[in-house]
Amino acid sequence: MRLSFVTLAALPCALLASTAFAQAAAPLTLADTMANPDWIGAPVERAWWSWDGQRVQYQLKRDDSIIRDTWQVGVAGGAAQRLDGAARNDLDGPTPAYDAQRTRMAFVRNGDIFVRDLRSGALTQVTRSNDAESRPQWSRDGNLVFRVDNQWYQWRAGQGLSQAAQVRAENDPAKAPKADDLRERQLAMLQTLREDRAQRDAAREQDEAWRRSDGSRAPKPTYLGDDVEIVDSALSPDARWLLVVTQAKKGDAGAAGKMPKYVTESGYEEFEEVRTRVGRNEPLPQKLWLVEVANAKASELKFGGLPGIGEDPLAALRKAAKKDPLKGERPVRIETDGDGSGVSIRWSDDGRQAAVLVRAIDNKDRWLASVDLGKAALQTRHRLTDAAWIGWNFNDFGWLPDSGKGESELWLLSEQSGYSHLYVASGNGAPRAITSGRWEASEPELSADGKTFFFLCNRKWPGDYEVCAVDRNGGAVREVTALDGVENFMLSPDGRKVLVRHSDSYTPPQLAVVDSSGENTVALTDTRKPGFRAREWIQPEYVQVPSKHGAGTVWGKFYGPKNYEPGKKYPIVMFVHGAGYLQNVSARYPNYFREQMFHNLLVQEGYVVLDLDYRASEGYGRDWRTAIYRQMGHPELEDYLDGLEWLVANKQGDRDHAGIYGGSYGGFMTFMALFREPGTFKAGAALRPVADWSQYNHEYTSNILNTPELDPEAYKKSSPIEYAGGLKDHLLIAHGMIDDNVFFKDSVMLSQRLIELRKDKWELAPYPMERHSFVRPDSWYDEYRRIHELFGRTLK
Q1: Is the pLDDT of residue 594 over 50?
Q2: CA-to-CA distance for 173 and 142, rounded, in angstroms?
């Protein structure tokens, strides 16, 4: 489906027409494809509702700047307005928290907490500080709690702001010291010391008694000891209970790397500390504490009751590697995703229920548990286990509003069926599925009345994302949108409309509003520049490549000429997306928009291009994601070989003139293709590539290959440097020298290996001022000039 866009501002008609004609008529050049993307038009980066649901506020990057401006447009469309000066003082904020009656919302703006009355529009600024407040949540009776770092505050209309809970990684000053013979001798000997101590104890006891009886005092701090550091915390909305996550202070997280920087303002070489390597060491295990705020009592919540926590899924590998067997429970962390940004503790709005996501450090198990507040114990609500690894996505969970049954129900996402779907868990029973099928549900949001789930779905085909809806008790799933490339969405404060951020192959993310019933779609923005919009771009053909290796269908995007010359064979370029677990074959604007323009240029010059969502890519279910477990680069290469066969059979592809390229994981796969299938691809360009997986990070690599000490065969099988002897075709390696994701060291080590092997036909292009993702047009142009020339001299 295509929408008629409402542009941000009208351009003079003569200028628009002349510019569009000139751009459309001129052949695409390499300079066009690698230019500063400001010429395309800024994508809408973040968007949110105004309090009355009549306007939408969003952010755009300013041309030739890193500044983000805030714009506003009405839900009926029309000209957008940039909000500056005093107009910014009335902004609302993304992801607001609503009270139980849906009459107020709380949100964070510029690090402060604000409350908006949804009946009158009155705005109250709750905090004004240089701290970063976060995570506002309302109690059912109107108490608002939020945090500053790991200290918690509460606000209630008419009662003001107060500290609600304080937890410290310190020793309790009132706690009796450890037994010490010398101290006891001195106290027994000197009366003055005994009297001084008695007076201090009496003063402290009096202060604590006053605190308990004086409602104006903040709660007493809770002390967890000076041997821990506080990682996370979550206060119940009624401010009675606090859950705290800790780990050992100064625990050994492994030796960090030192990355040299050669081009510096100082004129001297400088060194930047970078991440540790996989297996050097594992992430630190964590503990969970329940704090009763009123008496500052902390109780450790033990994990021993979680099913399977005492089992070792890596026991066979540990034995083969002659490592000591696992003793006791597996260590765990309280986290939903790999970067710690996902909320891993959720309180119900009545403060009586809390749910916690617990993840084994080996990432073979994920548990959802509720907290028995009276017994200070965890109760398992759901276990997800995987012989490969638990994905970082699809771990959303929360509490449903009270349905009148007298108990709160927990909703969650789970891949237990092989695809991410919605479930509801009541009591201690097994969760019941709310959605099902060979597609994925993600990013669920409850309607204003708590009766309907809205979520992203890809039901029609894996790359077609829409907003879907289903009753909280299950039933038929309906598609709310028909936009093909929905990125994300947000319900209006009254729940009647859905703000949708969407895109397509040549349209960066834009905004539209649709009724929650699915009717009356209105496009709000089109930020594309006239010159880009006027070009006639090659629309990708979405294809299904049959697998000869048991994978079923491999989805791809094909770029080719409008009209084929009979009998002609076209040189082939195959593109490999990065990240491994990423989806590039979709109706959305691609992460690799420059590469897509480059593919247009290649077709213009007589090539055909195929971009595949190889095994491990996102959007195709758990088994597709985990197909590479302990064998990275093997199933994916099979998929590309099948793609090559398909191009020869169906698109007049020239098998004898095929090339391959990609960045990051795509660079790794380029190595694997050239090293393991010599002669198949006459040339390859490996950009910011992984050469040895033992050099990469723990959070990503250990999921797929375990650790080098435990599973050396997986690393040997999966690391391109082990196969470098197979190179006989043309290879370009391009890498940013200050890449803090895939270190430049990978390319240096591989270069040395190729030198030792006396390989020819390869070159290394270093970029001294670029990290993993290039940001300078000069670097982009130089890199793709080299790729363009490589293919031109080897494939034509």
Answers
A1: yes
A2: 35
